[in-house]
Structure formats: structure tokens, C-alpha cells
Give the backbone structure.
Amino acid sequence: MNNRFLDACWGKPVDRTPVWLMRQAGRYLPEYMAVRSKCTFLELCKTPELAAEVTIQPVDILGVDAAILFSDILTPVEPMGLKLDFVPGPVFETPVRTMADVERLRIPNPEEDVPYVLDTIKILRKELAGRVPLIGFGGAPFTLACYMVEGKGSKDWATIKRMMYAAPEVYAALMEKVTMMDMEYLNAQIRAGAQAIQIFDTWGGVLSPTDYEKFVLPYTRKLINGLNRQNTPVIHFVKGAGTMLETVQKAGGDVMGLDWHVNLGKARDVLGPNMAVQGNLDPTVLYAPKEVIEAEVKRVLDENAGRPGHIFNLGHGILPTVPPANAIHMVECVHRLSQK
């Protein structure tokens, strides 16, 4: 088994830097689009055999060092009582705006309410046996709450920010409920066989460092502390967190995901030698000529300066129009340039 990824999560020495890509099972791959053409996005998420198939595709095609479960961060929110659709972005018909709305939300039982996610993990553990580790994932409580309150994506997330300031008791009740749901969901993934967990806080960086520490950190810390993670590393990725790395570190993850707005070497200096990091190539570099991709890969590796505990990744998800050959080249460059 290729354990480079797990070893790097724990800060152990590796023979070469492990690499995987956020959204590596996605629209940039013709093989994924062939499967996706037969069903809707939600049907793909809810059909274990198909979800497992597209999870494995980039492992075969790109040669990455880890697979990540194909699903969506909002999958466990729907059984809380919010009807979810994608048009193409996520939309909830009835956003959460009042205390009564929060009280109506239920805490799902993952085995009963999202069995397809756990079945996908079980299939993948068999299919990936002896190959690469499987990463499970979920959204951080704040990012999930953003979608639940706004009802869809937003440029400024003003509705949830208004709730934070003007109705803090409603916000706190919602965040407590979402955190409990998240904890149950991620622990179920670990029980089903996920070998690492990534927590995506895509919108945590839209807040000031002070507001992040007050309104987000307590819930993410409670979530991470509530995971049964003795042998399961937790990667905590907050997009836009370059100005508050030390605060985000307080959440207690084992690995910090970094976006491309921060110098990886300087981030490691701030975080200290005991915190592994993941990142952080700008996703748009994959549109560049191959020699530019190689130079940018080398730059990120040089910033890390050979320190253990580095997982190479993009600073956010791979974009749908990236040529697959460029993603393959990036993975090859990481392995070749970091070979011990």
C-alpha cells in the first residue's frame, strides 16, 4: 500500500511528496463526464457503485497518492429537513432564518439517512485495497450554515452575517445543531472505513479574524474534538485563512490546508514544525504550458524546503476546463522533483 499520504499527515518522512487534488473526481475528466451523462449530480452521489467508480478514476488516470470520496458537503444537510437541488449550484427551497426553522431541523442517523455514502466507502476500501488511502470529508459547520441560511451561494453572505450579529441566539442554536450532525456524519465515515477526514470550510475566510475566532472557531474545534480520530488524521481547510493561521490552528486539526494566497514556507514558519500542511498551487496554473507548471511545482516544493509533513495539493478545487494532461504532468512533477 502507498502510505505516503498518511505518513505525511502524521509528519513522518516520506520517499517523495504525496499529492492529490481537491475535486480530483470531476468535470475536467472525460471519463467522469461519461458517467455523469447517465444521471443527475445527486443521483451520482446517491448511487454507491457509480460514486465509487468516479472516485477511483483519477487514481488510475493521474497517479495520485490518495482517493477522496465522491460526494457533496451538503449531502447530510438534506435529511435534516431541507430539500436540496442543484441548478447547477446548490439551492435549498426553505432556508433557515428563524429559531422555529432551527427547531424543526433534525439530527440525521447516517446509517439510516445517508447509507449510500457509507456503502460507497465500503466499496472503495475493497477496490482500493493495497493501493492508496481513502479520504472522507464533510463541510465545516460554518460553511454548511452559510448555505442553509442563504439558501444558495452568495457573493457577500450578508444573510448569515446579519443572523450572527442581529440574532446571535438563532445563529448559536443553528451552529450547535449543525456541529452535532457533522460529528455524527464524519464519525460514521470513519466507522465505514475512511482513513483520513478533510473538513472543508470554504467560506470561513469571509469573516474577519476576530469574527472567525468568535463565531466559527468554537464549533469547528468542538467538531474536531468529537471525532473518533485516534488513527485517522484530520485535514482542516479554511479558504482565505492566510491572515489567521494561528487562530485556525487552534481548531485542533492534524493537517492545515492552505490556499494559494499564502506563501507555504512562511505559513509553516508560523504554524511550527508539528503541524503538517497541504497545498497550495494556484489551480489556474494548470492552464499554463508544462514548463511553467513544472516551475510552479518546484517553487511550492522549495518553499517547503524538504520539511516533513507536506502534502502537495492545489489551493482549491481543480477547475472543470483544465486539460487532464496538465494535471497528470503536475502529479509527475511533484513525484519526480521531490524524490529523495
